[in-house]
Specification:
Number of strands: 2
Number of domains: 1
Number of helices: 13
CATH architecture: Up-down Bundle
Largest sheet: 2 strands, antiparallel
Order of helices and strands: HHHHHEHHHHHHHEH
Radius of gyration: 20 Å
Strand content: under 5%
Length: 380
């Protein structure tokens, strides 16, 4: 009887939008506010703030729908689905910003701003997942349990791939600074070649994780839950939430420049701190929550797995899409951004290499993130 998932136990997709389903849905009020501000009041600052807030619960609903679908798959595929759609909101924002850059035209200030914001958001996603999310997870879990453990094989494979990816991402910046005969065009070509190599490595990693060494990534208790909604309802919820996230992201992107000017916030700070923070807030909350339940394998998979996927899949994919539509997006992020990303990976790998965590390690990761956040705010 406990495995019975008859229709009487399943909830319709629209129930997920109610406050009784999740308190986070209270923030959905920001969606109509963003629409009003963008299309009626023409208030860029309110549009920007409201759309950014609205993306939080909508991204959570995307994650909830993905989790419902993942419960009907294997552990490895389910984990991949969760990691992929966990970064979907950020990927949508980046793609819309690239399209806005294309529409603005080559050489315009808007094109340069959008490219900078996309580059910053990619680095910011890596920093946020490795330092903020992992730090909060280690801290919250460490306050409840003296010491926590997680799968060292998962740590090793993800950490090695992430280190490789970050090295590849910072090479164009180092190349431009070191090569006296380098040009913007050569950096652009190098970035595109690096993107193709990273996507190839990501494909090999998926083969390793899902096929040849799938048993090494298995964790206990990952799929013991029963679905709470029908597969069709989960698919509808995923489509509806994705459309709404895209709509809010469209408003956010088109109000970003004016809002940044009115609020006196540097574009770099918006891209590195604000966009990843709000776009991934629901996933961050999940990682911290499961850490408090001593499910560190899942928490680690969310934080480091998401960073790895940003570095080896989403970042190169965005570069190739930009190439296809004629936007000169490169991996030349800037000295502060590349140094921060490399140091974040270094410190995250150092504290996680033993497969154990405690609250002090979490506090150190959070302190590192705070230092970087202040630096980027002052840098702009």
């Amino acid at each position: 009887m406990e495995h019975d998932t008859g229709n009487s136990e399943l909830v319709p997709w629209y129930h997920s939008f109610t406050i009784s389903s999740s308190r986070l849905n209270i923030l959905l009020f920001a969606a109509p506010v963003a629409i009003y501000a963008a299309f009626i009041a023409h208030d860029a600052t309110l549009s920007f703030i409201a759309s950014m807030i609205a993306i939080m619960p909508l991204a959570f609903l995307m994650g909830k729908a993905t989790e419902e679908i993942a419960l009907r798959t294997s552990e490895s595929i389910g984990g991949l689905l969760n990691a992929t759609f966990g970064n979907a909101a950020e990927m949508i924002i980046a793609l819309l910003a690239i399209i806005a850059a294309m529409q603005a035209g080559s050489g315009t200030e808007t094109e340069a701003t959008m490219i900078k914001v996309v580059q910053a958001s990619l680095i910011g996603s890596i920093l946020g997942n490795l330092l903020l999310v992992m730090g909060l997870s280690f801290l919250w879990g460490g306050l409840r349990f003296q010491e926590q453990e997680f799968n060292r094989v998962q740590v090793g494979s993800n950490s090695s791939l992430l280190l490789l990816a970050v090295i590849a991402l910072i090479i164009p910046t180092v190349f431009h600074a070191a090569a006296t005969n380098s040009s913007d065009d050569s950096v652009l070509q190098l970035s595109r070649i690096v993107s193709l190599i990273l996507l190839l490595i990501y494909g090999l990693f998926l083969l390793f994780q899902l096929k040849t060494h799938a048993s090494l990534f298995a964790t206990d208790g990952a799929h013991h839950e029963s679905p709470s909604m029908a597969k069709r309802d989960a698919a509808i919820l995923l489509v509806v939430a994705t459309i709404l996230v895209s709509f809010m992201a469209e408003i956010l992107v088109h109000s970003l420049e004016d809002a940044a000017e009115e609020l006196q916030i540097p574009h770099l700070f918006i891209g590195i701190i604000l966009l990843p923070l709000f776009g991934n807030a629901a996933e961050h909350f999940t990682a911290v929550t499961v850490a408090g339940k001593n499910k560190m394998d899942l928490s680690f998979a969310i934080s480091v797995g998401s960073s790895t996927q940003i570095a080896v899949f989403i970042a190169p994919l965005i570069v190739l899409v930009s190439w296809a539509i004629g936007v000169p997006l490169t991996f030349e992020f800037g000295l502060l951004e590349t140094t921060s990303a490399f140091l974040a990976v270094l410190i995250a790998n150092t504290v996680a290499v033993d497969g154990k965590s405690n609250w002090l390690e979490g506090a150190m990761l959070l302190a590192t993130y705070a230092v970087l956040a202040v630096a980027f705010l002052m840098y702009g």
